[in-house]
Amino acid sequence: MVYTLIFLTLFKFDSLNVRFIGNFPFGPANAVTYDSSRKVLFLGSGGGVYILDVSEPSNPRKISDKIRTRGIVSSLFYLNKILYIANGYGGLEIWDVSHLQNPSKFSSYILEEFVYDVFVCSSYAYIVSDSCFRILDITVPQNPREVGHCYLPDIANSLFIKGNYAYVGANRMGVRVIDITYPAEPREVGHLYVYSCVFDIYLLNNYLYLIDLQNWLRVIDISIPHIPREIGVFWDSFPHYQIFVLDTFCYTASGIGLTIFNVSNPQRIYKVGYYDSPTYGKYIYVCGLYAYLTDGEKGLRILNISDPRNPLELGKYEVPHITKDVSIYSSYAFIAQSLSGLKILDISNPQNIIEISTLYLPGNTNKIFLSFPYAYICGDSGLRIIDISNPYNPYEVGHWDDTATSANDIFIVYPYAYLLGNYQLLRIIDISDPRNPVEVNSFTTRMNFIYGIYVVYPYLYIVGLNPTFMIYDISNPYNPFEVGYFHLPGAYASDVVVLFPYAYFTIRHPGRLVIVDVSNPSSPYGISEYNLSDLINTSLFLSLPYAYIAGNHTFRIINVSNPYS
């Protein structure tokens, strides 16, 4: 069962009777830029930006986490104490960062498109969104306005400005060269196909450097802008995702972490060195002797590149990992995060959600269930029981280990915890002594894949694939047995809540809410469905008369006061 944190980011803002209040949007590190004069780094993390003091590279220190966007940060551009944020369906956001501890938003420019990248030059911001290149007048940062645009033949995911020309990476359609002499009338004047998907581009002097899907680093001569021509290539065994060029070296955020190439002679490129990061490099910024590498869920790595043959890690900054589940108690939100365990937020002021503590746990965390004063968390390492009586100082009191399978969902009805294992497996754990939880039974169901679990004693309800919905009698935990089932051919059910005499569950794709009468457990039958075709991978919470459903960046509220309609 999933409790949905209601302070959600609604990407396209087509809300009906729901108002955005606040969020805690931080997640994997996916963009970075730098203010060299103040030795300050701006780190895109999920849907927010951390401002970090990196004057001491071995010990980066958080200055502020007050920049919280409406989308997922995809690119950052910093100029003259203003931060420009391309954040997907959140459009372009412009922030005043002259006061680092208290940044303030100047404005937002929202589009019905996904904004991938931003570049600022003079009084214009250039953005690429889906298949369009746009020019915004930012003379008044509080009121950006579009002055011109140019459509492109494919998704535009990267850009660079030099002089009167914009160079745009257009996915499968190579590099497009756009004349921006007249901002109101940008027009394409040249292009270069590379026979692969463009990932990122960078310009230095008369060369454009490009990385693509097939692991090629390409150097393109743009001395004649409307006739770009390739003059050098290098193929690598690792993929490369983002690129930065300084002097005679090219730095890429790559599948291994950081890769460094010597490009002093574009026709004879060779690899100089690399840094092997815990996961993979996603974004890179280089200044002086230091490279700032984002490493997804592992956060930020600060590297000394004075010897490009042997880049060395000096410091790092951890970021929140992917949120897998959330539960609410009083004025606190308890978040299960994939690789960082339990994170606790103070949500007493929804407009200013504050992180108050983190408890790191082994393995990958999947789900959380609260039964105060304990939080029960399941994942790769089985079941962990956490004392949360003091939210500022949570600690583990007991655990039950299972390294053979991953526990994917959990439900507590004291004195038992019911764990959903991989595929068809269910486990029953005695938690009467939280210091020493003990398995009392495990059994395999005939459901092919189990995705959700709910318990209303003496019955356990599971949903998944083939059959869609099943009921087990668990009055004797040592001998549970199937009572009844309900099946929708080909349907994947993803989450379930039972408020007797009805069971409510969501179907993954195409999305829909299904209501089943379970008054007779041996013969459950469907009474209604509600179409949610635009939602996939949904989670469900009920507080009658409403069902709250979240999935693929959308949040829905459904009136279920009449379950038949």
UniProtKB/TrEMBL annotation:
Keyword Cytoplasm: no
Record keywords: Membrane, Transmembrane, Transmembrane helix
SUPFAM superfamilies assigned to the protein according to its UniProt record, in alphabetical order: Putative isomerase YbhE, WD40 repeat-like
Transmembrane segments: 449-472, 484-505
Domain of life: Bacteria
UniProt xrefs under Pfam families: LVIVD
Protein name: LVIVD repeat protein
